[in-house]
Amino acid sequence: MTAQVPDEVFFERGWYSLTAVDGTGLFDPEAHDLEPMTVSSSCWRGHICGYAVSEGRLLLRDLIIASEDPPPLIRKVVPVRDGDEDDQQWLYQNLEIPVAFTGRLLIGDGDIKGRPYLNMGFKPAWMYREVHELTFKAGALVDAADRSAQLAAVRETGPPTQPTAGESTADWVSRTFSLSYHYSWPT
């Protein structure tokens, strides 16, 4: 198994990795007639979203999607190959699609010195130096809170980086490949 490339969120002045989702309404490729395929062990989903919080709204700004054939236009944006001509990844830039997400997102940035090694699934929030929790209602940002101190305290407890006693390997793998709050911010 391989560490996964996360979606990203541009918030305030920088890009953050999306570490957890609690809610509904994020970008769904199928709703845009896209059928992503896996071309890399680091992106089993076959797509990577670049979201942005702009003027208090959540937008899908960029999208990378894996497809053998050129994917369709989205909002008149033509996808371009993301790499050489044999690459099966396509990039949509400057989409600016409003995302009607309702719920919470945890976003993180910055490496932690001496953090444990985890080379599988998505990196949880407690493994980032700076963490923010963003709360949205129908795509509108209703709250933004710095959770860095709380996640630093979680980090001090030494959350598991391998299956816990009695947990099957399959369950552990499933958990690390999820974007659940429970995995990203264990209590």
Summarize the biggest pleated sheet: 10 strands, mixed
Category by helix and strand content: mainly beta
Order of helices and strands: EEEEEEEEEEHHH
Indicate the low-confidence ranges by residue numbers: none
Characterize the overall form: globular
The span between the termini is 25 Å
The helix tally amounts to 3
Strand tally is 10
Rg calculated over all Cα atoms: 17 Å
Count of discrete domains: 1
Q: Kindly state the mean pLDDT as a whole number? A: 92
- Helix percent reads 10-25%
Relative strand content: 25-35%
Describe the fold and architecture.
- The chain has 187 residues and is mainly beta.
- It has one domain (1-187).
- Helix content is 11%, strand content 34%.
- The protein is built from 3 helices and 10 strands; from the N terminus they run E-E-E-E-E-E-E-E-E-E-H-H-H.
- It has helices at residues 148-156, 169-176, 181-184; strands spanning 8-11, 14-24, 47-54, 57-66, 80-81, 89-92, 97-98, 102-109, 130-137, 140-146.
- Strands 1, 2, 3, 4, 5, 6, 7, 8, 9 and 10 form a 10-stranded mixed beta sheet that branches.
- The chain is globular, with a radius of gyration of 17 Å.
Short description, anyone?
With 187 residues, this protein is mainly beta. It has 3 helices and 10 strands.
